[in-house]
Amino acid sequence: MMRGMAQAVKRAYKYRFYPTPGQAAELGRTFGCVRLVYNKALQERTRAYTLDGHRVSYEQSSAALTAWKQTEELGFLNEVSSVPLQQALRHLQAGFANFFAKRAKYPVFKSRKKSRASAEYTRSGFRWREGRLWLAKMDGPLDIVWSRPLPEGAEPSTVTVSKDAAGRWFVSILVEEKIRPLDPAGSAVGVDAGITALVTFSAGEKVANPRHERTDRRKLAKAQRALARKAKGSANRAKARITVARVYARIADRRRDHLHKLSTRLVRENQTVVIEDLTVRTMVKNHSLARAISDASWRELRSMLEYKTQWYGRELVVVDRWFPSSKLCSACGALQEAMPLNVRTWECACGAVHDRDVNAAKNILAAGLADK
Predict the structure, then answer these.
(1) What are the sequence ranges of the domains in the chain?
(2) Of 271, 263, 272, nearest to 184 (Cα)?
(3) Around Cβ 61, how many Cβ atoms within 10 Å?
(4) Phi first, then psi: what are they for 304, rounded to 5°?
(5) How much is the pLDDT for 129?
(6) Among all residues, which ones are annotated catalytic?
(7) Which residues, including other chains, have CB under 8 Å from residue 73's CB and lie 6 or more apart?
(8) What is the DSSP string of 262-284?
(9) For FRET with 174, which of 226, 311, 315, 341 sits at 20 to 30 Å CA-CA?
(10) The model's pTM
């Protein structure tokens, strides 16, 4: 059977780059100004909402930014590109829209130490020519490591520059790309997220949890002990903090790579993927399981499945979080009264012997297909 028509999707390609000292200084100033504008606008909007019950619009925040630039105190905002500053206000506007629609919590202030240092440039804030990228206020192109090519003929619409806690610089380039759906597949799979195994498929296969954080735990513990011994505010403490951040970055990179390969495999092999609506935030409150749950990154896996199934013409079905997948016999449908976490295999009154995770995956698949 032939594939369907290609659809245009917006897709971000992320690359490392190595700025010159001048570019690094300019971006550092831009990051600081973006954070300041966001926090100051949030403060003004919070005051208006708290004292007067008044909602401030993006246009009003933008006008306030123009006024700030004209003051002696904040005149330095004119020294960086105005585009990332306007984008900060747009992101704040989106945050408030999500809050008032009850899709998210109230926006929070950006911290210099905890928040990601980033700046977003729209088309008027950068120049793209023959595979080279110039940002506003910079006289030279970025030295980008092209680890994979952009789609042929792609024209960036948005560019986001960031620096992580490990001191690495990244540029994320958003382009519109045409993706053709995969050929229809006749199979469907139920996926049970676990701890002893990262996921278990309804066909019986278990994918081991690589436990990247556990693999590097000794190295991480050593780096954290070294950090704790350094005097606060010292140069040595700053160096030790970067060492800890690099270990965390290695863990996150390896985990993300594994999840991409797993989610791509699930989407390629199955027409329908059925998962549970797990509340990871609530489950992490169980301190005996928090580390394993966080390391598995279930939320990130679900996010990947959501956009990949949409791209490639597949279907993702999410089963209600209260569905008793572990306590239900997949053979006869009998419901057990209790199923403690330490019970990994059990026998139903009908004689069926179940592996806990495989049985749950089978029930998830059946529930997902029944809801279609």
Answers:
(1) 7-179, 188-371
(2) 271
(3) 23
(4) -65, -40
(5) 93
(6) 192, 276, 357
(7) none
(8) HHHHHHHH-SEEEEE---HHHHT
(9) 315
(10) 0.85
